[in-house]
């Protein structure tokens, strides 16, 4: 993910968990909860990180980034909705 500069693995993991728990509509209250769960990051940094994540996913889905050819046993069989197409918008 191109927005990882300055983000430690632990911060990224906390970000992922916080998004899964709290991001529904993109309200200010949700972003406050998310940022409170990510160590050393402000609300604006968390919002920017999310924006970059959505842009990265869109680029992948648009075919602008080649998807690696993983061996069959490593491939995921889960069918999830696209984050880029179903993501809440940022209230800036």
UniProtKB/TrEMBL annotation:
InterPro entries xref list: Homeodomain-like_sf, RADIALIS-like, SANT/Myb
Gene Ontology cellular-component terms listed: nucleus
Name of one Pfam family that matches: Myb_DNA-binding
Residue span(s) of domain Myb-like: 3-56
A GO MF term: DNA-binding transcription factor activity
Composition-biased stretches (Acidic residues): 70-80
Regions of compositional bias (Polar residues) in chain numbering: 81-92
GO biological process, alphabetically ordered: determination of dorsal/ventral asymmetry; flower development
Location(s) in or outside the cell: Nucleus
Family annotation (SMART domains): SANT (SM00717)
Chain residue ranges for the region called Disordered: 65-92
Domain of life: Eukaryota
Keywords (A to Z) from UniProt: Nucleus, Transcription, Transcription regulation
Family matches, as PANTHER family: MYB FAMILY TRANSCRIPTION FACTOR-RELATED, PROTEIN RADIALIS-LIKE 4 ISOFORM X1
Record-given protein name: Myb-like domain-containing protein
UniProt organism field: Escallonia herrerae
Species lineage: Eukaryota, Viridiplantae, Streptophyta, Embryophyta, Tracheophyta
